[in-house]
Amino acid sequence: NMHPMSQRLRKLKKAVCGAFTWYRESPVVYIYQMGKVASTAIKNALLRRRIECYQPHFLSRNAFEQLIKRFEEVDLTDWTAEHLSSQIAENLRLYNRLIKFRNHSPEMPQELKIITLTREPLDWYFSKFSQNFGEYRQDVARFIAETRDIRIGNEDADRIYTHVGEFIGSLLEFASSHMSSFSPEESARIGMMLKDAEFSGIPGNRVLLKHCMILLRPFNWFYMHFDPVFNTRIIDSALAHECPSRQLKLDYCEILILRYEDLFGSAIGVLEEFIPECKPLTLKKENMMVGKKTGREMYAVKKDLVLPVPLKQRIDQSPYVQAFYSS
Q1: How big is the chain by its Cα radius of gyration, in Å?
Q2: Which of the 8 DSSP states describes residue 26?
Q3: How many beta carbons lie within 10 A of that of residue 158, not counting itself?
Q4: What is the tens place of the pLDDT at every residue in 215-256?
Q5: How far from chain centre, in Å, is Cα 240?
Q6: Are strands 28-31 and 254-259 parallel, antiparallel or unpaired?
Q7: What is the reported pTM?
Q8: Cα separation of 257 and 234, whole Å?
Q9: Closest Cα to residue 114, out of 177, 173, 42?
């Protein structure tokens, strides 16, 4: 229940806003998303308009537990460990603030607005691979060493680049043969395959299974990381057209769902309507991989990519694609 003092303060602020339409207190904005969806561009645009804004990737208890488990991995790089450490600390702080908003704490008198984003899943994977190439190139090197007995040092990026297309082609063929669906249950099944010593011991399998888990992330992120935090059913609601405008209102926050593909077009007007205090909003493309060597290599791989028909059918039939990318 809302604290009586907090309730009185909010009523007073609403009265002030009603009497003086020129006054409006800016909300706190969380851009809560799966990553690689231009959240930095939105965050920086809102910060330029002096909107308090954050971009957490995980706020669920399950996500925190999974990340802490990653520190048990023998091959975790120092770069990844440092990155995860800072992410855990920042997201825990934001999780605590979210709890205060949910309980209408007097410490949080502003409105809370949540922006979340989707992206076409294969585009998302290529972007993820490009931006995380410093981590994933060891996967490519290991895969080539195990399947073709070609040894490449992790630091020999130029040689690794030449095998990226082969690696991703093998990944998609593997996914077509071993992934029956794109669902949370499939994530659990792939996880069990990773633990199956006999199956994962086949040359290349462990690396391909790891990237199958990465490939599944866009399909399952809302089910696994968004819905448990906000007690929603985003994809199911979109499929049932219960949120045709891609907006939901809870008692302590408002939620806006955007597609990455619309960001530098129609979505700007939607953002300005959702957060009127940010007008006029100017988005600048951030962290773009186009023009960088990794970006060019990945673009070339993607351009020549032939998606296995069974895999394409399962992707197209997934609830995620049906909800956000079916015409």
Answers
A1: 22
A2: P
A3: 9
A4: 999 999 999 999 999 999 999 988 887 776 789 999 999 999
A5: 23
A6: unpaired
A7: 0.86
A8: 9
A9: 42
